[in-house]
Design goal:
about 300 residues, alpha/beta, Aldehyde Dehydrogenase, Chain A, domain 2, 2 domains, seven-stranded mixed sheet, 12 strands, globular
């Protein structure tokens, strides 16, 4: 957020970092972002945001042939196989989806489960959603806060309504404000089941606390559904054994795959395939994005 960036700038200033080493420029993306992307004296742009905005950044950066590293949108699959601990995997997946009110680029927003277990999965997911309270983050008992602004709230509401209209089964939540909330950009924690690959809520990044549950007849179809997306930022796999989870994880076309509920490893590279971006953050690979390779020959020349 802008506030956290300001605090970071103050820390660097108080630590004695020389002027000009770090500069903070506040402003809207279409103005400040466009100017930075086009500026000939800026050698690299590292951008985090939507795929739509990332495309615009890349276009504006192209005339100066500057390096562009991007971490963009996602519609990450969470594959839960029939031999997984269903209660643990489903409950964990729902809670992970609702983190940050669903406003995480790597959120496990598509839960892919065995068709035969759809009703059982939906019941577990509903139980978690019903215990998830949206409201003032300062209030005791609140689980998730609001989404970022009115525009995002309206978009989420439209996609929830679209899911209902296209025939998905609404398991929990739905359109409108949460119970007991009469203002603000709060979204009801929402679960859809029986979602098919051609539905809008299965294709578009919602960026809110909305989980879609999709069924697959077998492991091969689960992998196919997982990869049937223009995005490729993250993936998640739960299975009866880590060996089976690893086998499926290798087949998912995403920059980061977490097995058996494991958290992100901050020293590992983070970034996407396909329209989820290029380049990597975190770890050694993240540092190397900001470096140029230079060769100097002739030290031993006669």
């Amino acid at each position: 957020t802008p506030t956290s960036a300001l605090i970071f700038a103050e820390i660097l200033h108080e630590a004695g970092v020389p002027k000009g080493v770090f500069n903070l420029v506040n402003g809207m993306g279409p103005e400040v972002g466009a100017a930075m992307s086009e500026h000939p004296d800026i050698d690299m742009i590292s951008f985090t945001g939507s795929t739509r905005a990332g495309i615009d950044v890349a276009k504006r950066a192209a005339p100066t042939v500057k390096r562009v590293s991007q971490e963009l949108g996602g519609k990450s699959p969470n594959v839960i196989l029939e031999d997984a601990d269903l209660q643990k995997a489903v409950a964990g997946g729902v809670m992970h989806m609702f983190n940050n009110s669903g406003q995480s680029c790597n959120a496990p927003s598509r839960m892919i489960v065995p068709l035969s277990k759809m009703k059982e999965v939906a019941a577990i997911a509903k139980g978690v959603a019903d215990k998830t309270k949206a409201g003032d983050p300062r209030a005791e008992g609140t689980t998730i806060g609001p989404v970022v602004n009115r525009g995002q709230w309206d978009k989420i509401q439209g996609l929830i309504q679209k899911g209902i209209e296209e025939g998905a089964t609404l398991v929990a939540g739905g359109p409108g404000l949460p119970e007991g909330v009469n203002k603000g950009f709060y979204v009801r924690p929402t679960i859809f089941a029986d979602v098919t690959d051609n539905m809008t809520i299965a294709r578009e990044e919602i960026f809110g606390p909305v989980l879609v549950i999709m069924g697959a007849k077998d492991e091969a179809e689960a992998v196919k559904i997982a990869n049937d997306t223009p995005y490729g930022l993250a993936g998640y796999v739960s299975a009866g054994t880590v060996e089976r989870a690893r086998k499926v994880g290798r087949q998912i076309r995403a920059g980061n795959v977490n097995l058996q509920g494991a958290p992100n490893e901050r020293t590992a590279p983070f970034g996407g395939y396909k329209q989820s971006g290029n380049g990597r953050e975190w770890g050694q690979f993240g540092f190397e994005e900001y470096l140029e390779v230079k060769a100097i020959a002739g030290f031993n020349a006669a």
